[in-house]
Structure prediction request, 128 residues.
Amino acid sequence: QVQLVESGGGLVQAGDSLRLSCAASGRSFSTYSMGWFRQAPGKEREFVAAISVSGGSTGYVDSVKGRFTISRDNGKKMVYLQMNSLKPEDTAVYYCAARSGTYFSASWYASPGSYTYWGQGTQVTVSS
Prediction:
């Protein structure tokens, strides 16, 4: 079992940067693919980024490509989301998620139902 705790959210202005962190507890963190999702008020949960167990493969939703970077440190059991050039439309609660297994593919990593474990979320608000 994996427990996930996000941090790093806050209120920023458009164009600013934030780095979200996700701390994992439990065994075998390095065997979990990880994802970041977000949910704005009144909207469905949306895929943002995903990373394979080794960190060698990543995937992003088109709206954040070139602005956001997902990374992980298996030794520290951490996953990060570096967010640059933030826009008001990035405002949402951001969630970290984990899925066991080494198979990494766009056929599943963008779907919330593919993940087993979720954090409680951290709020990101971008003002214009």
Summary: The longest strand covers residues 92-100. The two ends are 40 Å apart (CA to CA). The CA atoms of residues 35 and 50 lie 4 Å apart.
